[in-house]
Each structure stands twice: as C-alpha cells, then as structure tokens.
Amino acid sequence: MTICSSEEIIDEFELLTRDARRVQQDTLRKILELNGDAEYLNRFNLGRRTDSKSFKSCIPLCVHSDIESYIQRIADGDDSPVLTGKPITSLSLSSGTTQGKPKFLPFNDELLESTFQIFRTSYAFRNREYPIVNGKALQFVYGSKQVFTQGGILAATATTNLYRSQRFKEAMKDVMTQCCSPDEVIFGPDFHQSLYCHLLCGLINSDEVQFVFSPFAHSLVHAFHSLEEVWEDLCADIRDGVLSKRVTAPSIRQAVSKILRPNPELASSIYIKCQSLSNWYGVIPTLWPNVKYIYGIMTGSMEPYLKKLRHYAGHLPLLSADYGASEGWVGSNINPTLPPEEVTYAVLPNIAYFEFIPLEKPKWEETEICSSVHYIESEPVGLTEVEVGKIYEVVITNFAGLYRYRLGDIVKIAGFHNATPELQFICRRSLVLSVNIDKNTEKDLQLAVEAAEKLLAAEKLEVVDFTSLVDRSSEPGHYVIFWELSSDDGASEDVLSGCASCMDLAFADAGYVGSRKTQTIGALELRVLRKGAFAQVMNHYLSLGGAVSQFKTPRFVSQSNSKVLQILSRNVTRSYFSTAYGL
Ligand code: AMP
C-alpha cells in the first residue's frame, strides 16, 4: 500500500518507533535472511542464524578498508553473492571530501526505498508546520556523471543515483515539491552552467517557489554567492527571453530556452529588488516572496555556513535536512521548528540495523569536545539501549551488504521519540590535526576558527571557508590554518596576527597546550588565501567524479594530497604566526 497523506506517514512512523526494539530485531532478521548466501557472512561462520546475539558474536565491526576488496570484486563484475544474496548492480561514490578520497559503496533498491521513507517522514513533519500547497521548490541539485566500472557496474554519487531513478520520481510525486529546473539542468555536464540555470528557472518561477533546497548548506551559500555575481546577466536573459552565451551545453540550452520567454516587467522588478538590497541581506525572501523556509543539511561540517545563509535568508527559518550517508540513512528531522544548532535526528528503526559504540571521555579530559583518541570505547549497544546525554559512534548494518560498519560519525543522544533515540550530530570521528600528543578534530578546528572570526567583525569581514594542515617541513611541526576571506583587502595586519594567536589559544586539549608551552609544537600559522581558492578546491574534487550537491570542504589536507596542497599554496597571499605562547 502506498502511504500518501502526511498524517498517514506520521502514524506509520509513530507505530514503528513505539516498537523500535522489535522492529530492529525484525530488520536484522530480514537483512540476514536475504543475504544468508553472502560470502562475507559465511567467512565468519554465521551460518543461517539471524538473531542479534549470534550476529554480534560472529561478525566483527568493520571499516571501509576491511571490505574494500569485496567491493572491488563487485566493481570488477563478480556477480556471485559477495556481500549480498542478490548481486549488486550499482555503486555509490561517497563525496570523499571527509576522508580525502572518494569511496565506492554498494547501492540497491532497498537503500533507495529507505531514502523514500526518510524523505517522506521529514516532509510530513515539515508540512505540518509549514504546509506547501501546489508550489515549486528552487532546488540546487547537481547530478554527477554516471560511469560504468570495468565490470559493467553503474557508479555515481548517491544523489545522482537517487535523482536518476524513475522509482524515486514516482514514489515521491505525492510528497516532493516540483523542482523549478528541468532534469537537463540537474544533469548538465557543467556545474557552473547548471547553477546559473537553477537561478534563472527559480527567478522565472519566483512567485510559485515555496521553499529553497540543496542537500548541503554549502551549496546553498555557494548558489546565492554566485547570484551576487551574475544577477545582471540573469535579468538580461529574462528581459530578452534569450539565454546567456555562458550556457553552452546543448542539453541545458535546449531545455531552458523552452521555458524562457521575454518578460521585461519581471526582469525590471528583479533588477530593482537586487539594487535595493543592502549587502544582499534577505535576498531570498526579497526575490522569492512566497518562500516559507530554506532546507538542507546544516549540522556538523555545514555549521560554518549558517551565518552567511542566515544573511541571505533574512527572516526565513532554516530547516536542517535529514542525517545519512552514502552508506545508508540514519534519521529524520521530525522537529522542523528547531534552529539548526539544536536539530536532532530520530532514527528510523526499519531502514537498517543500528549499533552504537559508547565513547567516554577520561576524567582528565573534561574540556575536550570531540578528540577521537581521548575517548574510551566500550562494547556496542543496541538502538534502544543508548542513554540520553551520552556520546556514541554509529555502526550500521544495511540491506546493501554492509555489516557492523563503523560510520565514523559521533552523535550525542538528545532524547527519545517513543522508543527510538533522537541523535544530535557532533562531528566526524577522524582526527584532523596532530603533531605529537595533541589531538584535534574538525569540530575543535571549527570552534577555533569561530573564536578568531569574532575579531574580524570590526573589519566587516568574514571567513568564507577554511581548512588546515600539519606542517612538518621545519622543526618543530606546527598547525597551519588556511582562510579565504569575504574580501581580499581590508583586514589589518594586527587583526590577522591576532586571529592567529586566538586560534592557537583556542586549541585547548592538554596535549596541544603542553606541547606549545614546551615549544615541541611551533606557533600556529594563519595563511590567507585569495578569493576563489576554495572554488578551485571544489572544482578539483568535481574532476575526480564528485557531485557539488555532496561536496564538503575537506577540513584537513594531508601531505599526500598534492593537488589540493598546490591549489592552496599558489593562492596564499599573506601569512601570520601566533605570538600566543611567546615567539
Ligand atoms: P557522503 O560521504 O557524501 O555520503 O557523506 C556522508 C557524511 O556526511 C556522513 O557520514 C556525515 O558525516 C555527514 N552528514 C550527513 N548528514 C548529516 C547531517 N544531517 N548532519 C551532519 N553531518 C551529516
């Protein structure tokens, strides 16, 4: 039966979550029954057992590198039951920006179905607070290329797999709002041209647009930043009904030209509105007066973009989208009125089997927020056994051949909805900065950048994006933080060197502070980049097959990532060393 109305979807969700414990056992049983022939499970002598106790005692926890060779065999065309009973016919390419390189992950119909369920659930809750009636959505969605592996398996980013799927379109037509842009724009061969046309189609439909969406907040900010640069061209296109020459891809040109008609009245109203804005504050409600909210993932590594997004959004609420990964979905945002900083995700107990590795801070590290090695791990617990206020790493067993797979994300249990936990996303587990005994994660880095950014406020400047590396080219090694600022001029030398010192002091873990005091870690260095440097970094990742929709700026660049290092190095304009611990 297809569940259509929001109330029916919510009722179904309530039923599932009330009985989360049993639903989890059933889900595991189903996964193991479907995949009883899988070589991976048989290697660990699970036999045909489907209970959680046998499963946990036979199958070890794993990370991507443990199963990479299995996935490679699938990519090479091995259609025996490697990870799943039924052969895997498509692969997802994770963004790779969180871990340095894109990874292949198995994708199948069951994962697709779980996507529908997650989207429908959050849409139903959202719609209760902010009803969307016969409107359209301005969606900044970009498909990546679909490629076939040597073995003939289809590989693309998870977003592409989704938007390409006919099933997705059919299953979601009751609950998904119509996108302003034709498919040719989403799947265009050039992201800059697609972005331009998303904006154009959005403006043509400006009165009908009821919400603005992109999978991650980064691409929302990127889109409106581009609008600042191309608005006059967009107005000219609408005035004359002729698409700008910058759009050269025939597929996009043809599709957009069909919907573009000369409309001087609309063009001049957009022109006047753009001119009336002060520094583009509130551009979204100004140009799209019927928009009710802005939607996209805004937690975790997307938090640094919130300030800019709020600037563009004016009075409109920002609603964070759901929590998941190319490995599978985890939870829905069922409290859409919460600001992104407080958002939690309710786990859907039938989309996968979840375990949580309890992480505890040793007593001597009370101040630490998220440094991985400072956590003491204990045995994983089940979905309904987690405790409010505690911190865990998420482990997923899904329908597409991942068994007890460590997702690498740290979450905090904020509460329960019926019997299912509501998770607050804390950060990625991976360590970013370490010279010796110091350990700092992307969250620690984010907090340090935020602390120093306050010093820029007086100069009316903002940090547009940032990343970091450990420089060991001279002794002792030191942290390098790269900043791209909202303007290439303006910041005084004193302020920027103050920012370097401020970040140096903001890394407060005992290992860092101790090493700085004894000068076994050198002074933190702030390197300021030319405007547009991070756009070049993104373009580099896109050239590796990534999709803009899933792009996350890498917060740490390793020495082996020579291409990104080159981009950063050639864009450095100035550099400042901290004086926080003396020279
Ligand atoms: P990808 O590699 O592109 O599949 O990205 C998956 C990763 O994005 C997850 O493992 C998380 O670290 C991050 N992510 C996904 N959804 C959210 C969310 N709602 N909040 C914070 N981070 C998220």
UniProtKB/TrEMBL annotation:
Assigned protein family: Belongs to the IAA-amido conjugating enzyme family.
Source organism of the structure: Zea mays
Domain GH3 C-terminal per the UniProt entry, residue ranges: 443-560
One Gene Ontology term of the molecular function aspect: acid-amino acid ligase activity
GH3 middle domain ranges (all copies): 345-428
Keywords assigned: Ligase
Record-given protein name: Jasmonic acid-amido synthetase JAR1
Single GO cellular component term: cytoplasm
Source organism superkingdom: Eukaryota
PANTHER family documented for this protein: GH3 DOMAIN-CONTAINING PROTEIN, JASMONIC ACID-AMIDO SYNTHETASE JAR1
